[in-house]
Amino acid sequence: DTTDDHTLLWLLNHIRLGIPELIVQVRHHKHTRVYAFFVTATYESLLRGADEIGLRKPVKAEFGGGMRSFSCEEDYIYENIENELYFFTSQERQNIIRYWLENLRAKQGEALHNIHFLEGQPIIPELAARGVIQQIFPLHEQRILKRLMKSWVQAVCEAQPLDEICDYFGVKIALYFAWLGFYTSAMVYPAVFGSILYTFTESDQTSQDICCVVFAIFNVIWATFFLEEWKRRGAEFAYKWGTLDTPAESIEEPRPQFRGIKRISPVTSTEEFYYPPWKRLLFQCLVSLPVCLVCLSLVFLLMLGCFQLQELVLSIQELPRIVRFLPKIVLAVIVTACDELYKRIAYWLNDMGEW
């Protein structure tokens, strides 16, 4: 709500010139007084973006089937290429647009007010870190959410619509719920066996010890089968959703938040951002380690103080009963406050450690 017109126009021009594939609309919310950039792209632009990031898509059966990285030159070989609404999933469109936004790079000597960018530094993440941009998020599609609400959330004793979840929320979320459903179903076996074992166990100690050993052996066997079966099931999902043969992290583009100086890689002979390891090690030894030790010491002292207060309160018999709970309330407040404080410190240390 405090953003000036110069900042808005500066960012808008950079997006439109640096990412001509995107369509940007600027809107102002009358209640929150916040400016928002609504970003989208045409189908042709999304196809070029899929080619650029190497998005894997299913190939038509007559061209061999399977999954292959998308190529605009051979777009006719991919399934549903003629259908603009169904070729890309919601999550794939988000990935392409976010990829473009996070790779909008600054030129040498570029600056916005008191923010001075390094050459090649990602603009959007830096503005988000400085608070100029509050949030970057995809908008929900109510039509799909209502369909998922009926087929997933409100459904009883029905299989999860994992393909629909994958199309909307992405592979990671779909794999999580696939694992959760598989784990819940697999827990039926130890639950049934344990209940039967408990029913027929005698009350004497020897019988209970034997049943405990039998149940422990069963759990070891069950856990082995569970893990092996999930490996097979997970591989099936990965192949089905096109993530089985994704490139290794070592050859992917580095995170846009990474900062460093440009150099020619001695390994690949390509241009890359480089940050000297000795600087990172120096920061870890002189900043990260002392900060962590201070945080641990602070937590230890605060907990020790709460325990001493607890003993003091319990030693005074005349105090009301409600006062006896005061040390526990204080400890709960301290834990909550420290959790928020340490989270901010951890984010800061992580960001500084990547430079």
Beta strand %: 5-15%
On the 0-100 scale, what is the average pLDDT?
85
Please identify the oligomeric state. single chain
Biggest β-sheet strands, sense, barrel: 2 strands, antiparallel
Radius of gyration, taken over Cα atoms and rounded to an integer in Å: 28 Å
Question: What general outline do the C-alpha atoms trace?
Answer: extended
Number of strands: 8
Into which percent range does the helicity of residues fall?
55-70%
N-to-C SSE string, H for helix and E for strand: HEEHEEHEEHHHHHHEEHH
Count structural domains.
Answer: 3
Main location: membrane
Domain Anoctamin transmembrane: 165-352
Keywords: Membrane, Transmembrane, Transmembrane helix
Family: Belongs to the anoctamin family.
Keywords for this entry:
11 helices, single chain, mainly alpha, 355 residues, 9% strand, two-stranded antiparallel ribbon, extended
Structural write-up:
The chain has 355 residues and is mainly alpha-helical. It folds into 3 domains: 5-130, no CATH class; 143-246, no CATH class; 257-353, no CATH class. It contains 11 helices and 8 strands. The strands form 4 sheets. Strands 1-2 form a two-stranded antiparallel sheet. Strand 5 and strand 6 (115-116) form a beta hairpin. Helix 7 runs antiparallel to helix 9 (205-240) and helix 8 packs antiparallel against helix 9 (205-240). The longest helix has 39 residues, at 277-315. The radius of gyration is 28 Å and the shape is extended. The mean pLDDT is 85.
